[in-house]
Here is the input.
Amino acid sequence: MDGLGELDARLVACRACPRLVEWREEVARTRRAAFADQEYWGRPVPGFGPHDAALLIIGLAPAAHGANRTGRMFTGDRSGDVLYRALYDVGLASRPTAESADDGLTLYGTRITSPVHCAPPANKPTPRERDTCRSCLVDELRLLAPHLRSVVVLGAFGWQAALSALAAAGRRVPRPRPAFGHGARVTLAGGADLAPLELFGCFHVSQRNTFTGRLTPAMLRDVLGAAADAAGLRRTAQ
Here is the structure.
């Protein structure tokens, strides 16, 4: 098992945040009526994608009946429907839908993770829960560092968490810290054994944002495409 595999195995066994443990397991027991015949994952959700990814997407946290059910990031909910469709459209995913952890979906040069790995009540992790989970994101960034060239952060919560984790992972984050905004782009200088890293901001793929048109498919494709190009990824034409 390599470093990321070991990290994922350690993460899945985590019970550090009592509120999150209670919630994720309660949801897995009671289930939503539409998924009553399915066995829920009900544990922390590890990152998804190749271990030599050049592009990392950082979200918020697993959805109660999405990744907390399927065990794979952004899989099985409407936010994931939007994200994976866009990844497919820009040539970074093998299929446009993500339904289950065994559906055959492959990501090309791209990995998806989050600053909080357990589903939180009302989709709102607390600052303490974010900080408790930070070491996992820091370790993931360090392990990806030899190949990582760009990062897309979905939403302001993830942006703040990502900046702190990137600094802890050895990146030189500007002071004052860059503000979040859709389309924001910041170059983090390289040094020592680290190559420069391009950081992109994007509105989260939440239903609130996508249903109201605050984030359109074209807006999402533009950010993902720019990040893929910055990472030097050869995108598969769809």
